[in-house]
């Protein structure tokens, strides 16, 4: 034992040197089992490689078995929303040319996606993207239809305008001329009054700025300088409306004198001849009646 131990001590360095290759050769064999286990990346590869439709189909089946008020139902639903957001971005890209921010369009499209998820039935055999795309696009179109009008008009008139535009194009091609109001009404099955109202609604879709620069053919200055004028008779509207009940209370002769003088533009002499009294009597009656009307307006004010 001592000789062996001594030999080991003497030849310890040599022994290590001699056995080192054997140990190095054995280490890979001992480490082989851990390397045989798949690393995290390899384990995640099958999940990352799953088709979105396949994963959505599986989640929809799971969602159908969960109570609507459970936390797991909300989790699976949120997962489906996040999983199908690329569908919303794809649909929103069709409206990139609009003046609305893309973030707002995507947000509106996401609302359509949520509605489609809540209504989707996986047992019908229809792929979810096929089912969801019309809902997402329809929600975005509804957003533009409701917010792109310069003046807010009822939904019924907005839809009527779209129908009139489509019917007008079809009739124009068929008749080789612009259709009349009666032809549009007959084509859509509505009254002519509705057609006129629907055509007038089109003026509310876009608006021009009052400070906009006029076109080349119209060099009369900004639109604000060419619209409207000061109506000098506008101030008299209130007085005329206030005088109506006061005039109605006057005796018939005094009321007739007022009408002949201020509305018929007759002189006092002509009024006297018309009624059969003297010019002086007409003057006194006018003075008395005007004073009475003036006092009535003052007391009402």
From TrEMBL:
Domain of life: Bacteria
Pfam families: Sigma70_r2, Sigma70_r3, Sigma70_r4
Region named Disordered: 1-48
Keywords for this protein: DNA-binding, Sigma factor, Transcription, Transcription regulation
Entry-linked CDD domains: Sigma70_r4
Low complexity bias locations: 22-34
An example molecular function term from Gene Ontology annotations: sigma factor activity
Entry-linked Gene3D superfamilies: 1.20.120.1810, Winged helix-like DNA-binding domain superfamily/Winged helix DNA-binding domain
Name of this protein: RNA polymerase sigma-B factor
Originating organism: Kitasatospora kifunensis
